[in-house]
Amino acid sequence: LEDGLAEAIDDGRIGPRDDPKVRSKILSEEFKWDKDLAKKIWCFGPETLGPNMVVDMCKGVQYLNEIKDSVVAGFQWASKEGPLAEENMRGICFEVCDVVLHTDAIHRGGGQIIPTARRVIYASQLLAKPRLLEPVYMVKIQAPEGALGGIYSVLNQKRGHVFEEMQRPGTPLYNIKAYLPVVESFGFSSQLRAATSGQAFPQCVFDHWDMMSSDPLEPGSQASELVANIRKRKGLKEQMTPLSEFEDKL
């Protein structure tokens, strides 16, 4: 999805209960969507409200309305448990471009369509160079000038970075704001106190999601190791299901 669109869905500015005309106006003016395309959004997910969507791009496909609910159900399932580590997807738009359906209605039931839609969504995500998003804290720290070196040292070790440093008027204290990946925050407070002789006091608040630059599908990369650790923690096979498992052989 375009920059800022996932956040707009999270904030409730765009959602499934909006008037289609109002929603298409926001999407076309702020996110440069085609107005007709904006009216063809089938659903949001996961749980009907999440920052992912399915858009109907088909033209002249028979029986499409019959399978719409089943495709939506498959999408809700897939977006709740993604192919990398069975975590929620975020910021993805799936376009239904073409569908070939069996003429016999008995072969168009939910039992056939829901798992098929899920596999199609998994395969399309794996082909689209997926990336992991990691949650990031904003850390507020108060400390005297003599402790700043220790603070910067600990933040660098933890992949954090300072984006604001201000001295409080009339005091020897500094207010520091920094970003810190949540996965690196374990033991952060104790390390910070040790490095500053107990002079620094951090407060952590969730701020945003940050895209990891490494490829989770590339063996040995930081993202692939993180995926393996998450899968291990959940009791899944450490190796994610390969793309070939989702491709039908005709």
UniProtKB/TrEMBL annotation:
Gene3D superfamilies per the UniProt record, alphabetical: 3.30.230.10, 3.30.70.240
Domain Translation elongation factor EFG/EF2 span(s) in chain numbering: 13-129
Record-annotated Elongation factor EFG domain positions: 131-220
Alphabetical list of SUPFAM superfamilies matching this protein: EF-G C-terminal domain-like (SSF54980), Ribosomal protein S5 domain 2-like (SSF54211)
CDD domains membership: aeEF2_snRNP_like_IV, eEF2_snRNP_like_C
GO molecular function: GTP binding; GTPase activity; ribosome binding; translation elongation factor activity
UniProtKB keywords: Elongation factor, GTP-binding, Nucleotide-binding, Protein biosynthesis
CC per GO annotation: cytosol; ribonucleoprotein complex
InterPro entries per record: EFG_III/V, EFG_V-like, Ribosomal_Su5_D2-typ_SF, Ribsml_uS5_D2-typ_fold_subgr, Transl_elong_EFG/EF2_IV
The organism's place on the tree of life at top rank: Eukaryota
Protein name per Swiss-Prot or TrEMBL: Elongation factor 2-like protein
